[in-house]
Structures are given as C-alpha cells and as structure tokens.
Amino acid sequence: MEKIRVFASTDYDVLIDSGLLPQAGELIFSAMLPDTGLDSLDPMAARKKAESTTAVIVSDDNVFPLYGETLKNSLTESGYKTIEYVFPHGEKSKCFTTYEGLLEFMCEHRIKRSDMIVALGGGVVGDLAGFAAATYQRGIAFIQVPTTLLAAVDSSVGGKTAIDLKNGKNQVGAFYQPRLVICDTDTLKTLPKEEYGCGCGEIIKYAILESEEFFDELLSKPVSEQYEHVISTCVNIKKHYVENDEFDTGLRMKLNLGHTFGHAVEACSGYTVLHGQAVAMGMAAIARAASGMGLCSKETEVRIMEILDRYELPKDITYGLEEMYDVVLVDKKNSGSVTNLIVPTSIGNCRTMKVRTEMIKGWLEEGGIVD
C-alpha cells in the first residue's frame, strides 16, 4: 500500500492500493484515533468511543449501489453506526438544494460535531460532502473515499470544497482538509469510458505542469495499466502545491491549467460537458493561444494535442466567443481587471500570467474560439 502524508492545516494520509474498501472501517478508526484522546489507553475504550460515533455516508445513485454496502459493512464491523444520504448523480446536484438537503438530513438525525461524513464517490460527491462537513455545526470530520479516477488523482486531495451557482462553478465553498483519503483502485474497474477519460484529462494536466518524463510515460503506457503509479505521482505533485500554498493565493493557482476556459465550457453547456473533458478543451485552447503568441513552441502545442488524441479527449470548443467571455468574467481567478491564466511554456513547465480582462477575448480567439 502506498501512503502519502499531506501536511496542511490538518495533516492526513492518502492511501492507495487495491482492496482497501473492505478495510475502510479500520483505516478510518486508526486515522481518527488521535482525536479521541484515547490512543494511549485501553483499546476497548477507543472502541467504545467509536460505537458512539455515526458515520454519514454521502454518495450518489450511481456509486452507492456498487460500493455502499461494502463501506457500510466495514464501518459497522469497526463499531461505527452508519446512515446514508444518496442524491442524483451529476454536476447539477452540486447545488444549494442538495447541500441544504444534506444539512437538514444530518440535523434531523441529530448528527454531532463528534460524528463524521464519509464521502463515497467522485468529485461532485467529495466537493459537496466536504463543504457540508466544513459548515455543519462549524465543522465536523470527513473522510474522502474517491471512486473515480479524477477524484483519486485530484479533487479528493487538497481541501477544496464547494457547490456551484447557476452562473459559475465552485462559487460557494471553503478550504477544509479531510482526515483521510482512501483510494481503492478496484473501484476504478467499473468506470464508464467517459469518466475514465475525464480522469486522464486531469492526469495529463499534471504531466504538462511538472514532468516531461511523466508525460512520456502516459504516452507509452495507458493510465489503466499503471493506476497506482499514476495516482501516487499526481498526489505527490499536488501535495507539493498544497503544502506550499494551501489557500490558493499564488503557487497553487498553477493547478488551474486548462480550468479557466474549461469552467467556462462547463457553464456554457449547462454542466452537460464533464469536468475532465472541459479541462482537456481548455488545455488545448491555451496551448494554441500560447503557441500563436510565441509563448511556447509549435512542437509543444503539437505534443499536447497528440496526448489528448491518444486518450480520445475533446480539443475543440464550440461555444461562441462572447458567450465564453461573459462566463470567464465571473471565474474565481478573475480579480476584476486581471485574470490569472496558466500558460504552458514547454512540457513540464508552465507560468502564471496576469492578463488584463479586456485582453481575454484575444486569448480566446487565439485558442480557436470564434462567434
């Protein structure tokens, strides 16, 4: 089992291996033991404490039927009481209505600050459950159990939690770190092709940002044949950004490569375009623009297009220039007069550029977006 320790406002481990889900109860028990103050006492006292703790399993209607019972059984065997809140899958559920429903559900079941939320699912589940954990009774513990490739390599680590507004993605949220992340690679075997591709989009982002060697590995060997290596590589890269800029004020902004235009694509599509697909489109657009403006070589652009093609990810944005521009204006990375764009200069190297907002249309046009 690979164990990666993330040092942040709350320190926690990311565990990566096959067959972890049936062990989740004991893994969570061990991670939560220091919170009880009983770790140096009789283990039976700690078990008794667990028996008074309720784990709220938050999942969606795609994932829970596959893995919910396994997780429940594991938690129960470790002494926890469990209840579950299952909502309709998809980005449209990452909204105030679902968030409010979860909070009311927990209040109705008398969930206490000493209880916890266990997020079982992809990025939507983790983001929403994490935001609920950050805000319910001013904060309760939560555990991430990602079941999609995208969540395993990216969204489950780093403490960004949020819900969407009608006019913008992730506009309401909080920085709130999990107590533990459990990545069972066996859960990736049931991924639909589109969800697998979405995860690959984020993985490619990490390679473009940080490592030409990793980029070449992704070209020579499919992600599906090296899950543990790929997940641990991405988590170690993200760990560096989170530990050095937990609250996303400088260095961590680089993780938004492809996201400024990608989030606009998601909003323009009414969130029918999946996140990883939108990020791929955003990376393709920013690579075209950077190449056209002489900020990276044509070869770099071509290589980025090659790897997106290799993983059958979309590259072309079909929404109009004005529509995209209007959405970019409400992006979190837009400070009013300036938007931070993450621009590839070569494979393994990117720079943050502060672009005057009125110049964004030119970048969109260079990226192949027209009315």
Topology of this protein?
Blueprint: E1 2-6, E2 12-17, H1 24-36, H2 43-51, E3 54-60, H3 64-77, E4 81-87, H4 96-108, E5 116-121, H5 123-135, E6 141-146, H6 149-155, E7 160-165, E8 168-175, E9 180-184, H7 193-210, H8 212-220, H9 227-244, H10 259-268, H11 275-292, H12 298-310, H13 321-328, E10 338-346, E11 349-356, H14 360-366
Parallel strand pairs: 2-9, 3-4, 3-5, 5-6, 6-9
Antiparallel strand pairs: 1-2, 7-8, 10-11
How is this structure best described in words?
- The chain has helices spanning 24-36, 43-51, 64-77, 96-108, 123-135, 149-155, 193-210, 212-220, 227-244, 259-268, 275-292, 298-310, 321-328, 360-366; strands at residues 2-6, 12-17, 54-60, 81-87, 116-121, 141-146, 160-165, 168-175, 180-184, 338-346, 349-356.
- With 371 residues, it is α/β, with parallel strands linked by helices.
- The protein has two domains: 2-190, Rossmann fold (3-Layer(aba) Sandwich), CATH 3.40.50; 193-366, Dehydroquinate synthase-like - alpha domain (Dehydroquinate synthase-like, alpha domain, Up-down Bundle), CATH 1.20.1090.
- α1 (24-36) packs across α3, α6 (149-155) packs parallel to α9 (227-244) and α11 (275-292) packs antiparallel against α12 (298-310).
- The chain starts with a strand and ends in a 5-residue tail after the last helix.
- 49% of the residues are buried.
The gist of it:
With 371 residues, the chain is of the alpha/beta class. It is built from 14 helices and eleven strands. It has two domains: 2-190, Rossmann fold (3-Layer(aba) Sandwich); 193-366, Dehydroquinate synthase-like - alpha domain (Dehydroquinate synthase-like, alpha domain, Up-down Bundle).
